[in-house]
Specification:
Number of strands: 10
CATH superfamily of the largest domain: NAD(P)-binding Rossmann-like Domain
Radius of gyration: 22 Å
Largest sheet: 5 strands, antiparallel
Number of domains: 2
Number of helices: 9
Oligomer: single chain
Shape: elongated
CATH architecture of the largest domain: 3-Layer(aba) Sandwich
CATH class of the largest domain: Alpha Beta
Strand order of the largest sheet: 3-2-1-5-4
Distance between the termini: 54 Å
Helix content: 25-40%
Length: 268
């Protein structure tokens, strides 16, 4: 068991968030006794086992859902055929497994589910971030849901979005219009987010910042916004732009500063 937790500690240095699955009770014929543990990584690979076969497959599926939701769950599995309401196993018993997300998952709040927003959601998810995508357009929200991340069907300038922001949150403002970008950015200025960035050309960004200054926002607050968003890597396609944005977020989170290659730095 000591070796298992040593391996978990090593995993957490490479993966910011994993799920620990622990068998807490069993009944009848079950493949493992209470106390059996398994770690599930974001890519679905595992360390340890809770019994193999159909049970383990279902536990992995549920663990990945727990990872996306970032909430623990006590799952009960009936080890019988599906016609009897079970999971398709032959043991005939039952297992209760506690699924617990472990580690400190950074949060990426993406305002706008356009092409860049969706590409960023996929990249951020694979990098271990807990993703929230916000868009009030049904067709765009539906596309975001297909990426298996949290989707909030609301306007990107909704004041209640401030409640989603913590010191673990990075915000990417990628809405469908200049006005909505400015309103969405204005709504989240002054929150605890460790990163706030807004997409746009230098001309557009300069105009929006000037309007925010006229509204009374202090220069120090506006200088903390990464706009234009992302690193200067010559990105053109949505995926390339998403790579530039995520790279800047990672650099700010890991190093606590804006890289020299930032589009924001080069625009000042």
């Amino acid at each position: 068991m000591d070796d298992f937790f040593e391996r978990i500690a090593a995993l957490l240095k490479r993966h910011p968030r994993i799920v620990l699955a622990t068998v807490v009770s069993t009944g009848g014929s079950a493949p493992r006794e209470a106390g059996a543990r398994m770690a599930v990584l974001p890519d679905g690979s595992i360390i340890g086992t809770v019994g193999g076969g159909t049970l383990e497959k279902r536990v992995i599926e549920d663990a990945l859902e727990v990872l996306r939701e970032d909430r623990p769950r006590l799952a009960r599995y009936e080890l019988t055929d599906e016609q009897s309401g079970g999971i398709g196993a032959e043991c005939g018993g039952r297992s209760e497994v506690f699924l617990e997300p472990v580690g400190s998952a950074p949060h990426l709040l993406i305002l706008g589910a356009g092409h860049v927003g969706l590409a960023l959601a996929r990249l951020g998810r694979d990098a271990g971030y807990r993703i929230t995508v916000v868009d009030d357009r049904p067709e765009f929200a539906e596309q975001a849901e297909l990426t298996h991340v949290e989707v909030v069907r609301a306007a990107t300038n909704d004041p209640s979005l401030r409640d989603l922001v913590t010191e673990q949150t990075a915000v990417a403002v990628l809405t469908r219009s200049h006005l909505l970008d400015r309103e969405s950015l204005r709504n989240l200025l002054g929150t605890d987010a460790f990163y706030i960035g807004m997409i746009g050309s230098r001309t557009k960004v300069a105009k929006e910042m000037a309007l925010l200054r006229e509204e009374g926002f202090e220069e120090g607050v506006l200088e903390g916004v990464h706009a234009p968003i992302g690193l200067d890597i010559g990105a053109e396609t949505p995926v390339e732009i998403a790579v530039a944005i995520l790279a800047e977020i990672v650099a700010v989170r890991r190093q606590g500063r804006t890289p020299e290659a930032s589009l924001t730095s080069r625009g000042r």
